[in-house]
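Hi all, long-time lurker, first post. I run a small reading group and we've been trying to get comfortable going from sequence to structure in the token notation. Rather than ask abstract questions, I figured I'd post a concrete chain and ask someone more experienced to write out its structure so we can walk through it together at our next meeting. Sequence below, copied exactly:
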Amino acid sequence: MEKEKTEKEKMMNGEYYDSNEIQLLTDRRNCKKILYKLNHHEDIDDYNPQLERLDKLLGSHGKSTYIEPPFYCDYGYNIHVGDNFYCNFNCCFLDGAKIEFGDNCFLGPNVQIYTPNHPIDYEERATSLEYCLKIKIGNDVWIGGNTTIVPGITIGDNVVIGAGSVVCKSIPSDSLAVGNPCKVIKQTEKKHTKNN
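-- Answer (accepted) --
Happy to help. Here is the structure in token form:
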């Protein structure tokens, strides 16, 4: 007989799951404890404690990772960033599914990245069931401030997303994209630093 999946396994697999299950509530509570320390760091000249907290918070990160506090996320362990990552103030990642960044990614303030999705039917939605879809962001990407990225999006390499955009369709490599909804307005020169 096949073992029944946990709610966490369902969440990670993009299936409907109960977001109020005890293990997930515990994971979110543990994440909040780390975020509190990250967001209330007293000595801004000493980066080592911040790096130790990022080691505990994130699923993985490369060299030169910096996140300006305050920063918010649900779990932390589903966030994976490459080398040379910078995230400005007040960003929020709802990471029920994996959020993956390549190398040389820069985020303006107030960038919101959401993997959870909820049923459209109000009766289903009231049950606390939801599902999450992963988000993948390539190398050499700049995301302007106040941008929102919705579940299931892929952004290619060498992309600039203009400030205030709402990204609800995937964006191909070598693009400048802006707006609500976000659309490609220009193709840019191909100069990739690293292949995926």
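A couple of things your group might point at:
Residues 22-39 form the longest helix (18 residues).
Helices lie at 7-12, 22-39, 48-57, 122-125.
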